[in-house]
Amino acid sequence: MRGATHAKWAALATAVALAATACGGGGDSGGGGANGTVSSSWGDPQNPLEPANTNEVQGGKVLSMIFRGLKQYDPKTGAANNMLADKIETTDSVNFTITLKDGWTFSNGEKITAKSFVDAWNYGAHLKNNQKNAYFFGYIEGYSQVHPDKGEPTAATLSGLKVVDDSTFTVKLSQKFSTFPDTLGYVAFAPLPQAFYDDHAGWLSKPVGNGPYTVDSYAKGSQMQLKKWDSYPGADKAQNGGITLKVYTDNNTAYTDLTAGNLDLVDDVPASQLKNVSADLGDRYINTPAGIIQTLAFPFYDPAWNKPGQEKLRTGLSMAIDRKQITQTIFQNTRTPAQDWTSPVLGEKGGFKDICASSCVYNPTEAKKLVAEGGGIPGGTMKISYNADTGSHKEWVDAVCNSINRALGNNKACVGNPIGTFADYRNQVTQSKLNGPFRAGWQMDYPLIQNFLQPLYYTGASSNDGKYTNPQFDKLVDQANAETDTAKAVGLFQQAETVLKNDMGAIPLWYQNGSAGYSDRVENVMLNPFSVPVYDQIKVK
Question: What is the pLDDT of residues 504-521, one digit of tens each?
């Protein structure tokens, strides 16, 4: 996503009102049972909640509740199952015919038709609309005309999209993309109602979608209230009356509210509480594998960090990090040392493999040698940037720097660089203002190896925040996308990942488990493979 979803992995927030943390889940729950409201920790999204403009987790949580797309990812397996799509057909992996199920509407009563999708995709792709997820439409024919790399658009709509009738539209891609249908559960591909275009500002203030919930109210810095949509036509109807998302700038405060009975759900247990969580919550603590990887990205846009031979420097820094010790001591084994740039949830058939090998194993002797051969750290000291508001990032950044300093025998080689809020941090990242390595990571948008590689490392990709580029990597990704044999496609993606490894285009740190805790007034709580709570299935006792 989520760069997608962007980008996506973060525990974030901006300012929190005292009222948001003072009152709790039980007090404003609206009763129990199917009408009870669930309170959950949250952070303000970086951007307005447009489906094609949200590529971070907190905004994605809301969109996952108020929208449904052509596909929906199974909350247990991650499999892409048809939701609004009745069928998606192709004979050549270039031309697709999509037929919609009947009976779907938006929560304002407007019928969902093929035009609802085609208009939304055209809006998301067009350069003038400045949507962060525009890149996801890049394989549709005509994208270079509506979203050119330079200059003004020469077309208003994607030539590869055609409405056939109310229930059918066709998609023509610019090249073969065999797994294209599996990407269509990502929220950027959601349909939009006419109200989105007729009163854009009004829609942004109170988004209208077609999911199990509707937005009732939102006070930035405080909370968002979502209500169950009683007329929702899908099978995954909400099992509660609504969700109250409460903004926290410190997930330790959220955890304290949970244990005090003032909050029902925390979906990012802070590292500082992991040693206590089993005693505090017992079987109400969830620790499960998720499609999330944490990395250190490099600012390749900074000449100081983009010199010939610096792949040795980056590899040396990777080997200076004692991942095993950090994941055990800081994260209490809720993280696993990374072996590649994807996630174990993909499985071997899906592309998970120990590609990083010795380059991701702590070896201080080799690390010191490679850093020297790579020209040394630019300026003598590197600063690892991270958002300081939530996520317990300070602890692990300090641990990474201590490991690097110890390996290199230099206490000034690495220091942390905290940046106030997540929004401030992301703005510096997306505006290419950082002059050293920075906290990065990825929460998958859909369970394909392609999603862990292309959005982050393909030249010009939507979440390629460090501006990494390698023509060989790009070529192999293109070949993999065109391959209709799944095993062969995965092999080509792994070849591309090997190119990334040889460049050490980013340092893989660890895979993250989904970590959550919940109160004794709710049940049937689970995290999906994206580490997002399955809000609609939570029941209030």
Answer: 999 999 998 888 999 999
